[in-house]
Design a protein that fits this description.
- There is one protein chain.
- The protein is an alpha/beta fold and about 525 residues long.
- It is about 30% helix and about 25% strand.
- The strands form six sheets. Strands 13, 15, 16, 18, 22, 23, 25, 26, 27 and 28 form a ten-stranded mixed beta sheet that branches. A seven-stranded parallel beta sheet has the order 5-4-6-3-7-8-9, with helices on both faces.
- Helix 2 packs parallel to helix 3 (about 80-85) and helix 6 packs parallel to helix 7.
- The longest helix is centred in the middle third of the chain and has 15 residues, at about 235-250.
- The termini are far apart.
Length: about 525
């Protein structure tokens, strides 16, 4: 039975909680035992097919009438998007590197306590982590949440050896409850029968499914994962196909029985908590500190097929900090609506470079917005969009022109994995000296840099970042009230981020931007200069 101690070592959120986490704490404070049926789908390595199997299982369970709470272990947007679409509800990421253990537990309990079953998809191999102890592994998450594991194994060109591998995983850490196996990519009935008999005889756990090799057309891949659902015209049909596979080849009732064996989860918290509130939609939330008569600033979030990588908690955090969130499509919108700040997340702007570039009225509106000193926070794809141009296959596509940088692309990842940055100077978003944890994944690279080292406010302790300055990798391109970075942040691991963006947007909302800077800003983006047309 998992017990989370009241004083968790190294808890970054214990002293500084976002309002979202505060709501979770309040709810947990009233009831400290949770009996949530749950499973974690893991594998021996990445590429074993656990994502497609997880999608199919979640979709099939949802279609049977169950409320499924989907989760993705680790910093992932694309798989989470597919899992959310399969479940018909948001998928939340559980990441013990970006967030402390307490926040991971809070998030899981908060987003699953009304569900019939919670399904967590692991990442990479079951025991793979950042260190020899596997502290950020799927196994560590299973232990933290006292969750039984179903191991999805790729059985290609293998039979009895798979039993040895499963047994090795079971004995490697007996505290991890490996409770079942799904055979994937089996070659036929004879292959399946031999695998099933061997594993059940030697490992003493049930084989709850045997999935044949599936055609790849339903789930095309780009880079190192599935194509995002907004770009996949057949996403609904793909999920339906995966659900049929799960119905036909996986014993879903056996899966549910395993999920129900999860121990009741005990939670203990000591300390004051904010008053609990019911969960509302983003547009209905109001900050507890905000007076009813004070108008809420409006933060525009660029969201369409080009920009789609947003953690639900980040959007919730903006609403909880007192802002209204307005979704805007830079592909379809001809102008920028009235907003007080912009948040531009990651995505694949390179696949839509021509359409983004041809929408000059929107690009010009974003540039003018920055020139007038309004705050913009951009991550990865958003960073590229704010640059001068993208160069693809020797064709140059002009972008918004806010920042003094030109981007190109490589065939291999230029940054991939967790990041740790130190803020090297004060700026409108983060105080100097603050350490931030995030992640990066991009094939783009800087091919022309027209700024200076002082424009980069992140020193990389881990990760590649934007450019190298004198042997120090740097990121966090900050000019005036515009901050753009390759590093993605998670709001539960960095509560400061949302409050800063909302504070800046509120400060800029009513001022005359042509005469004075926003309160709290180090400077205003100049009307002309590096990166501004």
């Amino acid at each position: 039975m998992a017990i989370l101690p009241a004083e968790a070592g190294g808890c970054r959120s214990a002293m500084h909680l976002s309002y979202t986490t505060g709501r979770i704490l309040a709810k947990m404070h009233r009831a400290d035992t949770f009996d949530i049926p749950r499973i974690l789908i893991a594998a021996l390595r990445g590429g074993s097919g656990k994502t497609v199997i997880s999608i199919g299982m979640i979709a099939a369970l949802a279609r049977s009438g169950k409320t499924v709470a989907p989760f993705k272990k680790g910093p992932d947007y694309i798989d989470a998007g597919w899992l959310a679409m399969a479940a018909g509800r948001p998928c939340h990421n559980l990441d013990a590197f970006l967030c402390d253990d307490r926040s991971v537990v809070h998030s899981f309990l908060h987003h699953s306590h009304h569900a019939d079953i919670a399904v967590i998809e692991g990442n990479r191999g079951l025991y793979d982590g950042l260190d020899a102890a596997g502290t950020t592994s799927s196994a560590a998450l299973a232990r933290l949440l006292s969750t039984p594991v179903i191991l999805c194994i790729d059985c290609t060109k293998s039979t009895r050896t798979m039993a040895a591998l499963v047994m090795g995983c079971m004995q490697f850490d007996p505290a991890v409850d490996i409770a079942g196996v799904i055979l994937n990519r089996v070659a036929g009935h004879r292959h399946e029968n031999l695998l099933r008999k061997t594993i059940e005889t030697y490992c003493k756990i049930p084989v709850v499914g045997a999935v044949p090799k599936l055609p790849g057309a339903d789930f095309p891949e780009r880079h190192m994962g599935l194509i995002p659902t907004p770009e996949h015209a057949w996403a609904a049909a793909s999920i339906e196909s995966a659900a049929k596979v799960a119905d036909n080849h996986i014993d879903l009732e056996a899966v549910c029985r395993i999920a129900r064996t999860a121990n009741a989860f005990e939670y203990t918290f000591h300390g004051s908590t904010p008053e609990s509130r019911d969960v509302h939609s983003i547009s209905d939330r109001q900050s507890a500190a905000e007076t009813p008569s004070e108008p809420r600033p409006r933060i525009g979030v660029l969201k369409d097929a080009a920009f789609q990588f947003y953690y639900p908690e980040n959007l919730d955090a903006l609403a909880d900090a007192g802002a209204d969130v307005l979704f805007i499509s830079p592909l379809a919108s001809g102008e920028l609506p009235e907003v007080d700040a912009l948040y531009i997340g990651g995505g694949f702007p390179e696949t839509h470079a021509e359409a983004l570039s041809e929408n000059r009225s929107f690009c010009d509106a974003v540039c003018d917005f920055a020139t007038r000193g309004f705050p913009i926070y951009a991550e990865c794809g958003g960073l590229m969009y704010l640059g001068e141009s993208l160069v693809l296959d020797q064709v140059t596509y002009p972008m918004a022109g806010v920042l003094p940088v030109v981007f190109g692309f490589s065939k291999r990842p230029q940054g991939h994995g967790y990041t740790v940055v130190t803020v090297n100077r004060d700026n409108p978003f983060f105080p100097g000296g603050m350490e931030l944890k995030g992640h990066e994944f991009h094939y783009s690279r800087v091919i022309k840099w027209k700024g200076g080292a002082s424009d980069l406010v992140f020193d990389m302790k881990k990760g590649r970042g934007l450019i190298d300055c004198g042997g120090i990798p740097k990121d966090g391109l900050c000019i005036g009230n515009v901050m753009a970075t390759y590093t993605h942040l998670h709001a539960l691991g960095c509560p400061h981020w949302a409050h800063s963006l909302v504070r800046l947007s509120r400060a800029c909302r009513d001022r005359d931007v042509s005469d004075s800077p926003c309160d709290g800003a180090s400077s205003v983006v100049p009307s002309s200069g590096p990166g501004l047309r």
